[in-house]
């Protein structure tokens, strides 16, 4: 069942990307060519679920709201870099204390 649902989802993406109508017949044709036998009931459910919706906009990353701005590599390259600071000496590790675990690991 998971393979069938995945095949129908991919068919929906392919049909939306090629501006082909998202119909049960087109979904069944694509999945059949892909070698996945999809029940017409599953294809019908997918078509009804996405009826009247723009599949591409539903699956776009960020949804266009509240997404962070893209990094500006040209500006980052234009700034001079700071000289690396001198490496600090590592501190001597403190000796570990013996903790009595109640004979758990004896």
UniProtKB/TrEMBL annotation:
Assigned keywords, A-Z: Ribonucleoprotein, Ribosomal protein
Name of the protein described by the UniProt record: 60S acidic ribosomal protein P2
Superkingdom of origin: Eukaryota
Q: Name one GO molecular function term.
A: ribonucleoprotein complex binding
Native organism is Paramecium tetraurelia
Gene Ontology CC: one annotated term = cytosolic large ribosomal subunit
Which residue windows does the record flag with biased composition (Low complexity)? 68-84
**GO BP terms in the entry:** cytoplasmic translation; translational elongation
Q: Does the keyword Ribosomal protein apply?
A: yes
Instruction: Give the start-end ranges of region Disordered.
Output: 63-106
Q: Which HAMAP family match?
A: Ribosomal_L12_arch
């Amino acid at each position: 069942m998971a393979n069938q649902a995945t095949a129908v989802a991919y068919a929906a993406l392919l049909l939306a990307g090629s501006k082909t109508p998202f119909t049960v017949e087109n979904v069944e044709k694509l999945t059949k060519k892909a070698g996945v036998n999809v029940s017409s009931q599953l294809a019908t459910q997918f078509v009804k679920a996405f009826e009247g919706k723009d599949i591409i906009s539903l699956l776009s990353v960020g949804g266009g709201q509240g997404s962070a701005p893209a990094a500006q590599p040209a500006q980052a390259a234009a700034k001079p870099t700071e000289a690396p600071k001198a490496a600090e000496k590592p501190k001597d590790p403190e000796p570990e204390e013996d903790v009595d675990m109640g004979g758990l690991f004896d």
